[in-house]
Amino acid sequence: MAGSGAALRALLRAANALLLQRRYRAALAVLKGFRNGAVYGAKIRAPHALVMTFLFKSGSLREKLKSIAQATYTHSRNLAYFVFTYKGLMALQSRLQGKKIPFHSFLAACIGGWLVFGENNPINSQIIMYLLSRILFGLSRLAVEKGYIPQPKQDPFPLVAALIWGTVLWLFEYHRETLQPSLQSSMTYLYDDSNVWHDISDFLIYNKRTDSK
């Protein structure tokens, strides 16, 4: 037992020594990026999938748990693969050109996005839409910062909020099929289901009464 403990300590010392060597830093950063992508993807997707599944999906408990696990695995895997691909391509480009330039980031992310997130499925669709909204805000701020558009005299956020809510509810009411399925489910719960009730039970306690009632 003592011998195995000593061997384990020696292995840990060797691993720590390896991690501190600068010549392996780029490769190790790629591996840690894969690890962080997997962990972050699971942390983000698991609670979201849990809430959305139990709120809007029908089926047995086993089917719901399987759906949550599958969504969490897919998000975690894709994010891990993307970070691995992105950081690997960044390290490769920097090594080939001898320095890091802004285009490296764009090219590496484009390739990673095509390879990892190119499949049109619900998980990838949600991630891309999340990023798109952040990009639009970021590019707007950058345009003001660089002087491409003048600094607004008043905070434009109230107008943006009004236009976004006006557009999304118009789409929901008249072109519902154009919206992403989870958004359709959320809005159906909020705006359609609240128009239907039969008694106090499905007015205050439940959203919809069961078939037995």
TrEMBL record:
Query: PANTHER family this protein is in?
Result: PEROXISOMAL MEMBRANE PROTEIN 4 (PTHR15460:SF3)
Mind telling me which GO cellular component terms the entry cites? Answer: peroxisomal membrane
This chain belongs to which protein, by name?
PXMP4 protein
What domain of life is recorded for the organism?
Eukaryota
